[in-house]
Structure prediction request, 258 residues.
Amino acid sequence: MPAAGPGRLHRGMNADANAVLIESLTRTYGNGSGTVIALDRVTLAFPAGSFTAVMGPSGSGKSTLLQCAAGLDRPDSGEVSINGTRLGGLGETALTVLRRERVGFVFQSFNLMPSLTAAQNVELPLRLAGRKPEPSVIEAALATVGLADRARHRPSELSGGQQQRVAIARALVTRPQVLFADEPTGALDTGTSRELLRLLRALVAEQGQTIIMVTHDPVAAAEADRVVFLADGRVAGTLDRPTAESVAARMTRLEVSA
Prediction:
């Protein structure tokens, strides 16, 4: 797979700053005896230019954490800040603008428009924001994910891995300050997953992109700088410079105690 291109597709940030700061975050669902505590006073910092994997047993709060951190869901209490902007004080319109301009999303399902070409899918966020896409920007986004020669192909003409790379290019085209990825390799085979993970790693190493990735795969988590473990809605530990073996061992202990 071609290496990530040299062009920077994100806004410059102070390397010492936190791209995302989560402070005493609590999120519950239901009420009365049916109340479920998805997040329980979680505090975490995600430095700019870092790659963090979030793991935990089923029901540990991983997806809720990602949704609250990305401004897709509002917590009951606590605060989320993206590059110093507190989300709690934003109205729905301002929050929508922030998500559109400063946050990128990649999901397990590629969510591409089947009738549009790769280039048209990539430029869609700009068009939805009322901005005229510059061809050079779209070309740069596709080149960054190694698909410069697939711009005119529709999703049905691309492999699963190529479709996910188009989804990543679409997420990067707005130059987000942080890229959130929810099980980005979940629908891919082992070889394609490794290619995609190398791409994500290159975005961090070569372009300083901040990535927060929820995954269940120890091999995927081993590409990150740090793994955050959740259990029962709380932080159950972190692991720096992870290996697949060390992540798997930690997950086994969490699942046994769950």
User: Anything to note?
Assistant: Strands lie at 18-29, 36-47, 51-55, 77-82, 85-86, 103-107, 178-182, 211-214, 226-231, 234-240.
